[in-house]
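Our working data are protein records whose layout never changes between entries. An example says more than a description, so a record of this kind follows.
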Amino acid sequence: MKRALPLAMLVGLTLQGCIFSPGQHMDTGNLVREGSPESSRIELIPITPKLLAIEGAFDKTNYVAPELLAYQPVEYRIGAGDLIFITVWDHPELTAPSGSQQQIEANGRLVRPDGSLFYPYVGTIEAAGKSIEELRSTIASRLAKVVAEPQVDVSILRFVSQKVILSGAFLKTGQVPITNAPLRLLDAVGQGSVLTNDADISGLVLKRDNHEYLIDLDALNRKNSNLQSIYLKDGDQLHLPYNDQKKVYVLGEVNTAKSLVFKGSNMNLTDALGSVGGLSQETSSGKEVYVIRGVDKLADETVKVFQIDLKSPSAFALAQHFKLQPQDVVYVGPADVTRWNRFISQVFPSASLLRTGIGIDNDIGNN
């Protein structure tokens, strides 16, 4: 009996220490111990209709820079590397000097690296920088000296001089030629064939004239999308990043804790919780659902922790409109009874061991 009383006191003190020790769960009133250095760098923000309205005002997922929309394609100008086909009607010896049996490209005229082009009875012409109509007019005027009223037509067999570069999560990367038909942004993306399972379609970067523009391709399916109005020009670069770094982590008292990859421009809190099977009905606390948003410089910036009470049915409407960001951590805390059960499961094995030890000690003493 003399030893049993101190044991009871020991278990009681252990119980008290486990229940009130800091760090057992995330408390809405006190995320960290008051007065600690961490307390000044964590901001707890309830998810409310007012918060969603403020974030909605800064939502730029449909934003396109005005200068991109203002650009209109100009008439195609011939450049070095382009392959030109010149037709002189009723003069096959000029149209197809290599013979009509040859492939059409065999009778094409290549624009030289210096921009010049040679044509019989015309001589060397400065082709680079000219439009198709300007080149046709120049050839016709010079041929008129040897051919009566020449009927000349000019077309481009192969466009090389002007191009757009694709890189990143495309099936086909590399050059996309700009032709005499204006090249739209969506046309170039279509030619590259997006890797839909691996691409971050909200993170397309257009590099133009030493500027970078972020374009959300997912906005194409939204109302008032103006992506169809973006045209590309020579020298543009399109980079589509992979989505391997665009993840959200769902942890705590959920049915299946795991990381989720963004498939579009955003993922809301309801989508994230639904993707892991929802909250665990047996162990979770609906009032302790948090979204932890990290920062790049933890020593200088404030970590934001958003909190929502999903015990209220109306809160699910808020969760549906709360947009997560890459690297967010969604954490669901345990219910009070869950903490108690876990404490009991940890204490009783220790208590049983202590009781066994006391029993052995008493037996030795009696003997």
In short: Residues 1-31 have pLDDT under 50 and may be disordered.
